[in-house]
Amino acid sequence: MAIDTVLLAVGPMDTVRAPELAETVLEIAEPLDAKVVIGHAFTEDEYEDIHEDIGFDARADDIDPDEVAAERAPVPELAERFEEAGVDYEIKGALGEVSSKVVDMAVDVDADRMVVGGRRRSPAEKAVLGSVSQEIILSAPCPVTYFRDLDVME
């Protein structure tokens, strides 16, 4: 199976590991001349919490999720790294339940591979709080590379 499109699904917690995520994606995309889609899904509550900080005054119903994603960390840093590497990329945003929106995004962009970050959680935390990464991995329409950073949000 050829890899033409790699979806890098990120969230605000990925800011501290953006360089490592970019390197992981570049290891896949560069030699294959694959396009990278930087995907950032967020809930309405998340949007309401950050919309003023990123310069948007529109209500969640009136926004373009792609524009919001382009302004939300770590997307600008990742875009700059892919630009410097000469890798074709685009930015996609989605508003709604994060795991299902990321899976929908993978289908929409016809992703051949996904890269998602995660954090260490105890089994009890996963049972109570759920795991967005786990839901994505279980529902993904393509193979997923899981990037686990033990130092993030322990």
From TrEMBL:
The residues covered by the UspA domain are 4-146
Q: Name one Pfam family in it.
A: Usp
Full protein name = UspA domain-containing protein
The record's listing under PANTHER family reads: STRESS RESPONSE PROTEIN NHAX, UNIVERSAL STRESS PROTEIN UP12
The UniProt family comment states: Belongs to the universal stress protein A family.
**What InterPro entries does UniProt report for this protein, alphabetically?**
Rossmann-like_a/b/a_fold (IPR014729), Universal_stress_UspA (IPR006015), UspA (IPR006016)
